[in-house]
């Protein structure tokens, strides 16, 4: 088996940070639906919100299915290996299953049997913001474990914090741009 390289890890990390950015932007924009820009451009905003939500869901599902790299053992071969579909607690496993069901049946494959009963399917598999945060925190913790165990010179927590700050700054800048007449 090929060892987990720094490049492999960085690719996964950037996928994670991009997914986190989509998730964060969606959450922050949902909080601003009373903003004047939303009221005057509802259809555009709803399109953006739905696209960000779908992108974040697809990104989380992609990370959850990366068994060939995140599932590799640590470099000392003594650490616990991870299959991203299995978490230590039932709650995270349930959240992971919801994410995968939504991606597989609702977004990626448009399962017609699920679409006919979309309301009940979505009610049963609704992913709350809190659940999304818990999954992101769990994936971030795994990335930090891999960073430490593989002795990679990449600071996951620092990049995550920078991403949080950049999302808020960029969003505020973007919202201010609506006050400019075109």
Q: Report the strand count.
A: 0
Oligomerization: single chain
Largest sheet: none
**Number of helices, where a helix is a run of at least 4 consecutive DSSP H or I residues:** 8
Question: Brief description of this entry?
Answer:
The chain has 182 residues and is mainly alpha-helical.
How would you describe the overall organization of this protein?
The chain is an all-alpha fold and 182 residues long. Helix content is 70%, strand content 0%. The protein is built from 8 helices and no strands. It has helices at residues 6-30, 36-40, 42-64, 90-108, 112-116, 118-125, 129-149, 156-176. The longest helix has 25 residues, at 6-30. The protein is flat and about 50 Å long. The model is unreliable at 72-80 (pLDDT under 50).
